[in-house]
Amino acid sequence: MLKNHGYYKDNMKGIETVVVTCENGVFRFVPPTVGESCWKVEKLLNRPTSDAVLVDLDGDGKKELCTLEPFHGEHICIYKEQEGIFKKAYDYPEKAEFTHAIYGGELCGEPAFVVGHRQGKRNLIVIRYDAEKKEYVSQIIDQNCGSANIYHYLHGGKDVIIAANREVNEIAMYTLEK
């Protein structure tokens, strides 16, 4: 693995796994179970990727893979697993130069991805799946912020995102409601 960067802890059928991204693609590491001695390494995607997370956005029981490509590139992509292979299902329609921050999980009671990028428009973006329209939809949380890292938590029943908005020298707190 060359130029590794992203690290994401995931749960696959009750087993904690790790997803690592690098110049060589996206890999899942599965620890050995009782009686096994070796870790399993699965290559999920063969594309240079700086960060990735897995979340079931559309509620079908299979997690979509959201990637930032190429390595800190301008593409936010979502891949859907079909017959054991991740195939591209969505490209964010605008360039998101120097993608860097990513979160995947529940947001306001719905599964979502949140992505920040550090050049160009420097937006903080939410991507969800609209079941009625049967398509992925995006919404901008903030503009011209340049998030390098983001963290999500719940406080008082509300979703909070903390962003290290490196490009504007601030730490920002976003409280989100439906």
Please, how many domains? 1
Identify low-pLDDT runs.
Answer: none
Instruction: Enumerate the strands of the largest sheet in spatial order, edge to edge or round the barrel.
Output: 1-2-3-4
The biggest sheet amounts to:
4 strands, antiparallel
Percentage of residues in DSSP E strands: over 45%
User: Which structural class matches the secondary elements?
Assistant: mainly beta
| CATH architecture classification name | 7 Propeller
Helix share, percent: under 10%
CATH superfamily: YVTN repeat-like/Quinoprotein amine dehydrogenase
Distance between the termini: 40 Å
What is the rounded Rg? 16 Å
Number of helices: 0
What average pLDDT do the residues reach? 94
Shape: globular
Sequence of secondary-structure elements: EEEEEEEEEEEEEEE
Q: Which fold name corresponds to the CATH topology?
A: Methylamine Dehydrogenase, Chain H
Number of strands: 15
Would you mind describing this structure in some detail?
By secondary structure, the chain is an all-beta fold. It has a single domain (7-31, 40-176), classed as Methylamine Dehydrogenase, Chain H (7 Propeller). It contains no helices and 15 strands. The strands form 4 sheets. A 4-stranded antiparallel β-sheet has the order 1-2-3-4, with no helix packed on it. A 4-stranded antiparallel β-sheet has the order 5-6-7-8, with no helix packed on it. The chain is globular.
Keywords:
four-stranded antiparallel beta sheet, mainly beta, 178 residues, Methylamine Dehydrogenase, Chain H, globular
